[in-house]
């Protein structure tokens, strides 16, 4: 398992090869064994294989071709709908239509997704997380017919890899770990933490390609701009209200 964890790669090209039901169910069963809030499992996983639905998802996931290539798309959802219905059917009044339980359910969904990733990679499959899920959550709600109380929080493509990319860089442990309490970063700390990332050949090529002064500007000016962040944030907040997660009474 340590080998699997340390050799994780995001796979964006997949072979035209289906995943048999036995293998898929073993992977999904690994997912639902994940830790969760109060053993309530306030999440759901949508398994999509249908080519027409995959094409619709491809369109909203910014037309990333791996969505079409992968035989299985898994959409992980925060889901208070199922648990609330169970409560109602048992004469127990639920109170989960609020931001706290969006947060709890999102944690549950992400924990399940990572269990699934580890199980899939351990079986020789490849995956890629799609950050476009929250950007286009309103469209995904419509495509997957998600009822009130359900909202998508992340998606993974799943299939047999048709590429073997290099491992991507990660920040050093010293940049992530805080001993005992949080130790805020000085400019000197930041320089040390990001030194290797900023001076890699890949980064230098990216800076030249994007015509920026440094890597940070690629993130703020090209990839995740303030304008886009505010737009998609407001769009997602409106969806959360519509889907019944923002009751403050």
- Which architecture name of the domain at 2-166 does CATH use? 3-Layer(aba) Sandwich
**Helices and strands: which structural class?**
alpha+beta
Overall form: globular
Query: How much beta, percentage-wise?
Result: 5-15%
Biggest beta-sheet profile: 4 strands, antiparallel
CATH topology of the domain at 2-166: NADH Oxidase
Run of helices and strands:
HHEHHEHHEHHEHHHHH
CATH class of the domain at 2-166: Alpha Beta
Whole-number average pLDDT?
97
Integer-rounded radius of gyration: 20 Å
Number of helices: 13
Layout of strands and helices, then pairs:
Blueprint: H1 2-6, H2 21-31, E1 43-48, H3 51-60, H4 66-69, E2 72-79, H5 81-89, H6 99-122, E3 126-130, H7 132-135, H8 137-143, E4 150-159, H9 173-176, H10 187-198, H11 201-210, H12 215-223, H13 226-242
Helix pairs in contact: 2-6
Short summary:
The chain has helices at residues 2-6, 21-31, 51-60, 66-69, 81-89, 99-122, 132-135, 137-143, 173-176, 187-198, 201-210, 215-223, 226-242; strands at residues 43-48, 72-79, 126-130, 150-159. With 249 residues, the chain is an alpha+beta fold.
Considering the chains and any ligands shown, give keywords for the structure.
single chain, 249 residues, alpha+beta, NADH Oxidase, 4-stranded antiparallel beta sheet, 13 helices, globular
